[in-house]
Amino acid sequence: MKALIEMQNVSKSFVDRNIDSPVFENVNLTLNHRDFVSIYGRSGSGKSTLLHLAGLVEHPTSGIIKLNGRQINELKESEYARIRNENIGFVYQDFKLINDMTVLENVEIPLALSKAKLTKSQRRERCLSIIKEVELLGKENAYPSQLSGGQKQRTAIARALVNNPTLLLADEPTGNLDFQSAENIMKLLSKMYEKGNMTIVIATHDDYVQQYTTKTIRMENLVREGGPFEESVL
Ligand SMILES: Nc1ncnc2c1ncn2[C@@H]1O[C@H](COP(=O)(O)OP(=O)(O)OP(=O)(O)O)[C@@H](O)[C@H]1O
Question: Which keywords label this protein (predicted)?
Answer without folding.
Answer: ATP-binding, Nucleotide-binding, Transport
